[in-house]
Amino acid sequence: MSTIGFIGLGIMGSPMAVNLARAGHTVRGWNRSPGRAAALVAAGGQEAASIADAVRGADVVITMVPASPQVEAVAYGPDGILAHAAPGTLFIDHSSITPQTSVDLAAAAADKGVRVLDAPVSGGEAGAVEGVLSIMVGGAAEDFAAARPLFDAVGTTVVHCGPHGAGQTVKAANQLIVAVSLQAVAEAVVFLEKSGVDLDAALEVLGGGLAGSTVLTRKRANFRDRDFTPGFKLELHHKDMGIVTDAARAAGVPLPVGAVAAQLIASAVARGDGGLDHSGLLRGVELLSGG
Amino acid sequence: MSTIGFIGLGIMGSPMAVNLARAGHTVRGWNRSPGRAAALVAAGGQEAASIADAVRGADVVITMVPASPQVEAVAYGPDGILAHAAPGTLFIDHSSITPQTSVDLAAAAADKGVRVLDAPVSGGEAGAVEGVLSIMVGGAAEDFAAARPLFDAVGTTVVHCGPHGAGQTVKAANQLIVAVSLQAVAEAVVFLEKSGVDLDAALEVLGGGLAGSTVLTRKRANFRDRDFTPGFKLELHHKDMGIVTDAARAAGVPLPVGAVAAQLIASAVARGDGGLDHSGLLRGVELLSGG
């Protein structure tokens, strides 16, 4: 069993920390804004007073925060993780951030003898609560092997994708495909409806062929009923499209349909739809079609 | 059992005619270029000497030809189907053509007392041979009901989508989603590879989440191995993107990612890749990324 300092008890982090505590690990949780540790404490964990307090004596530190700036804020500086973590500590970052930030973090941590894995997840709040997340991991193979029992406590599909940053790269590719798929289905739905077709019949037959996708299955009711309760918010997907756009530029790979999807998500956020589920891309297609 | 005049014994039409003959129907097949009726004759069907010969005495006429001009060529004129079909004949067009051509054909046929269903299919040559096509049908409900035993002889997912043209509209939406999905996966694959990620590991985890799709499953080996043996040719998908582009313009629905995918397919055809499987869109992304 591990002693874990868990940083970031938000919508995703809190249930992940709970599942680690339930699996028998000693979990000390910290969150920037207070009052987020109740579920963890109820599951047998503890609330830490500071990052230093969470990290002290831990053999594993886990972070789950919104984006690159927050990872840098909790990792670096005199009050940060690297200032307090003992040499040999395993630092697992579940946040979805730019691959380059993960690479830089791993290098800075190595100077302190701390081993880092980037391990972004997909599956949303429901996946976090149920402990069935998909986890895409970058870093050294031996560190992946050491972290495996912890991953298995929060997820079911756990894959080592390559060196530092590779987990973030795969998560970025995931968000690219999801964004484009949502936009394609949104365009198809508006086209079908404006053409006078029975939408339910159409989506049934589309789902059975090469056009079938998890987006079509899981988001079908959202599209049909215009129910854009998140789910996964457009403003978060907007952040992720920034990551994949930057990472692909760095890799020298233009993304023609990905770039258009990124612009349309940016437009949705600019119009004030950032709080909607990402299936709310449908609204943009309707707007382009005269409302 | 029906007496069927079957026009168009190509890659798709021949196995469909065979399956109808095997189901016990009397099938007289005709093809513009000769020598295509061997499989049908072996299955108990007959070769017709002309469209008039195929249509004479038939209670059902079925067409399966490449595009709108070929449908118009076999339907209209003194040698065409409408000139020879008896009033009351059911005319099932399995071709993938513009919705407007289907609407116009239904109107012209109604003047002769001939009832038309547009019934484009998806599932490819393998689906045609195995009799497991998806069939998207537009036209009158009572004609759909009458045609149902014939559809069941060639397909497994058979859906009435709405009035004349609705089948074509759904097929167009299908091709839109498939094209965009293929392009999205192609962009993700090149991005992953150029980023140094283990592609097989990445596609495994992507397939398990919201990015999962039939394209990702069925075309995975094509992308990974650069095996672009068709399958479904880019030049045919190019034709279909023309259909969906025109139909969406007519419906007043812009298709932002669909339009980009259409341009990239047009580029592939212009570069001489039209004979490749549509997963060959990957080559375009590689070209944009420096080869």
From TrEMBL, chains A, B:
Keywords: NAD, Oxidoreductase. SUPFAM superfamilies: 6-phosphogluconate dehydrogenase C-terminal domain-like, NAD(P)-binding Rossmann-fold domains. Residues 3-162 form the 6-phosphogluconate dehydrogenase NADP-binding domain. This is 2-hydroxy-3-oxopropionate reductase. Gene3D superfamilies: N-(1-d-carboxylethyl)-l-norvaline Dehydrogenase, domain 2, NAD(P)-binding Rossmann-like Domain. Residues 165-283 form the 3-hydroxyisobutyrate dehydrogenase-like NAD-binding domain. It comes from Streptomyces catenulae. It comes from the Bacteria. Belongs to the HIBADH-related family. Its EC number is 1.1.1.60. One of its GO terms (molecular function) is 2-hydroxy-3-oxopropionate reductase activity. It holds the Pfam family NAD_binding_2.
